[in-house]
Design a protein that fits this description.
The complex is a heterodimer of chains A (113) and B (109).
Chain A lengths: L4 E3 L2 E4 L5 E6 L6 E7 L6 E7 L2 E4 L8 E4 L6 E5 L8 E8 L7 E2 L3 E5 L1
Parallel strand pairs in A: 2-11
Antiparallel strand pairs in A: 1-3, 3-8, 4-5, 4-9, 5-6, 7-8, 9-10, 9-11
Chain B lengths: L3 E2 L4 E5 L4 E7 L6 E7 L6 E7 L4 E4 L2 E6 L4 E6 L8 E8 L3 E3 L3 E6 L1
C-alpha cells in the first residue's frame, strides 16, 4: 500500500514569493492534515479536512496561507507571500478518521531567503 | 500552550538495555495517546498507541504505559537496538492531535 506522497521534497524561495505544496493521502483515508514543524519541535496542526471540508483551520494564518482539498483526495497548501519565518518542514498526514493514528508523508522542507 | 510535554530532549542508552521515554500532558480530555518515531528527512512513523481506558499496551519490544492520574505516559523499548536511534514524539488526541517536542534517542553499540 502506497504511503502519503508529498511534493516537492525541498523548496527554496525568496521572501515575498508564492509557494505551493501538494499532498496525496493514503487511498481511502477521509481525514487529511497539514502540519508545520519547526526545528526541535513537534508537528503543529495547520488545518484538518474531513473529505473536502476544512473542519479545523483555526491555526492557519489566513492572511497568507490557503489550502484546498478538491474532490476530497489530493490537497494543496499555498503560502503567498512567503516570509522568512515560514521556513520549516510542512508535513501532510492522513487517517481513516479523526482521533486515531495518522500516517505522515516525508514532508516538504521550505527555506525562505 | 504546550499541552503535551517531553522534558528530556535527548537520551542515550547502551545496546541491549532498556530505553524509557517520558511524556506528560495537561488536558484531561485526551483519550488516545500515541508514540511516533522519526528518522532524519522522513516524516514521523506511527509506533504504538494506547486508549485512555487502558494502562498498558505492548507490541514486541515496545510497551507504552499510561498513568491517567499523573497525566503521564512512557514508552519502554527492551532490548534497545542501534536501529532504534531516532527522535520519538509523544502525541495525545481527543479531536485534534497534539505533539510533544520530541526526545532524541541514541542507542550505542
Amino acid at each position: 500500500e502506497a504511503g502519503v506522497v508529498q511534493s516537492p521534497r525541498y523548496k527554496i524561495i525568496e521572501k515575498k514569493q508564492p509557494v505551493a505544496f501538494w499532498c496525496n493521502p493514503i487511498s481511502g483515508h477521509n481525514t487529511l492534515y497539514w502540519y508545520l514543524q519547526n526545528l526541535g519541535q513537534g508537528p503543529e496542526l495547520l488545518i484538518r479536512y474531513e473529505n473536502e471540508e476544512a473542519v479545523d483551520d483555526s491555526q492557519l494564518p489566513k492572511d497568507r496561507f490557503s489550502a484546498e482539498r478538491l474532490k476530497g483526495v489530493d490537497s494543496t497548501l499555498k503560502i503567498q507571500p512567503a516570509e522568512l519565518g515560514d521556513s520549516a518542514v510542512y508535513l501532510c498526514a492522513s487517517s481513516l478518521k479523526t482521533g486515531i493514528e495518522q500516517y505522515f508523508g516525508p514532508g516538504t522542507r521550505l527555506t525562505v531567503t | 500552550d504546550q499541552q503535551v510535554k517531553q522534558n528530556s530532549p535527548s537520551l542515550s542508552v547502551q545496546e541491549g538495555r532498556i530505553s524509557i521515554l517520558n511524556c506528560d500532558y495537561t488536558n484531561s480530555m485526551f483519550d488516545y495517546f500515541l508514540w511516533y518515531k522519526k528518522y532524519p528527512a522522513e516524516g514521523p512513523t506511527f509506533l504504538i498507541s494506547i486508549s485512555s481506558i487502558k494502562d498498558k499496551n505492548e507490541d514486541g519490544r515496545f510497551t507504552v504505559f499510561l498513568n491517567k492520574s499523573a497525566k503521564h505516559l512512557s514508552l519502554h523499548i527492551v532490548p534497545s537496538q542501534p536501529g532504534d536511534s531516532a527522535v520519538y514524539f509523544c502525541a495525545a488526541s481527543y479531536n485534534d492531535m497534539r505533539f510533544g517536542a520530541g526526545t532524541r534517542l541514541t542507542v550505542k553499540p
